[in-house]
Specification:
Strand order of the largest sheet: 3-4-2-5-1-6-7-8
Number of strands: 8
Number of helices: 11
Distance between the termini: 39 Å
Order of helices and strands: EHEHHHEEHEHEHEHHEHH
Largest sheet: 8 strands, mixed
Helix content: 25-40%
Low-confidence stretches: 209-214
Amino acid sequence: MPKWIAAVSGKGGTGKSTVSAGLSRALARLGYRVLIMDLDVGLRSQDLLLGLENRVVCDLGDVLHGRRPVADALVPVDACPGMSLLCGPSSHEDTADFRQLCAALREAAAQFDYVVLDLPAGLGLSVELTLELADLAAVVTLPDLVAMRDARTAADALLERGSTACRLIINQVSRDSLRTGGLRDLDELMDGVGIQLCGVIPWDPCINSHSASRREQQQPLTRRVFDAIAQRVIGKYVPILMKSV
């Protein structure tokens, strides 16, 4: 059975999609078969981030309506062997039958070792899918007070309903982002969210650019951070590469 990782956030704009893509690539570099599911219904971005926008001919909505088989909706990421993309439906109407949706996602995941769910911001469908499918919830936040509070709300919503594995990923960290975000340091942020830290991703202009993201250009430290996060996800102990800035 594949292991499912759900990338969630309380608010939008935390870089959850770029974190999902970076983690998926890192797991694929370890030799695993990885499926990234873009389930931000109607607002997908992974096809653009991965340079696959001209190759997506159908999505999960077509599968749910019986127009295409699941295999047709899986798009291999040629630049990253072992990794594939599944784009979610374009309409929320297609997610109304939750059991049918989950069954289709499980069918799509059957041939993979790891599944990374790039979920929409907020507490609705994201929480439901995480509780139903995920082995691990990766709560993605920015180093600022607003994002910290929303990340805590998302983590509490999961933990209160029985999710036992929630981990924190802090994205776009720099001295300037901490200062402008109203935080003293990363310890204050970790204490504010209240879940175990899984990774600290530095500010990297290469992965905050559409053209650069498609080519998987990353600064060496960023790549090492994603590789370390992937190692932790598979159960290995790897020290946090950057605890403070």
